[in-house]
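Entry 14. Ran structure prediction on the chain below.
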Amino acid sequence: MDQEYTQRLKNIEAHLDRWLPENPDAAWLRDVFPGTENISALSIKSLLEPGKDMISRGGKRWRPLLMTLVCESLGGGDAALPLAPLVEFCHNASLIHDDIEDDSDERRGKPAVHHIYGVDTAINSGAFFYFLPLCCIESCAAENKGQIYRLWAECMRRLHLGQAMDISWHRDISFVPAIEEYYVMCGLKTGGLSRFAAELGAFSAGAPQESARRLGDAAEKLGIGFQILDDVKNLTTGIPGKKRGDDVVEGKKSLPVLLFLHKRPQERERIFSCFQAAKAGGVSVPETEELIQTLTDSGVLAEAEENGHSLIQEAREIFNSQCAGFPINEKSRVLLDGLIGLIS
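Output, structure tokens:
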């Protein structure tokens, strides 16, 4: 099974390289900037290099893999594969901007992109990477290009609203959103790209709109579950390529924090003071570990982790039931189910 994933990931990388080449040639320039001439290599480099850097650092690529496996499972073969940049480039663009907005030091084991190339270049390059993959829509053979554009635009609006909510919450340390609103925020910010990937896969296979919507719902749950588990890892084992506890420095209102604050409102001021100390002094200050230990001892980290796994299991059941009504590619369905298991 690992070989099946590896081959699909190679195919995805080939399509990413198609639109983000190491050395853009005249054909690439004509496709991306039609009618534009006399562009220096230096200008192109400053536009592409930050995004190329972020992409080259790796990443799980599970969103475009989800897209292709949904398409295959519904009998669409590799019809969705050329759209892989539409999912992965937008995801990496959001990471570049997220690191600027959070003033993060690291991403995937290296200095954050804006620390290497400068904030101005990183903002511009990150924004470009939302729009670059639209070129792959024009180049693909899909008959429903208008629908794909609509899905992309909706996803981008949802993504930025979710990010706005997240930013406003950590800028106001004393604000405690409702648990229900947290799930809305995660559904917009993280679940939105997952939904986009699943719906792209479904529409590429010719699935009816209702089936695509239900698969999108499932993928949104998958994205929320992934985000919850990611936030738990940040406060426990740490996430490779990032500093353990940097969510505390950011003042992030993750699910474990919100569960604790709603269960023990009398301790809010102590938690807020830990956030403030971490923001001022970084992950090494004792208040960072104090907050993590408090969350661990109270049981909310374990509760959040269980919630994350439950959402992913709900998503898995929906995927299995929705894919069952089509002329299914059984091998791809098994791979899709395995991918969901890997995410959890």
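The chain has a mean pLDDT of 89. Will compare against last week's run tomorrow.
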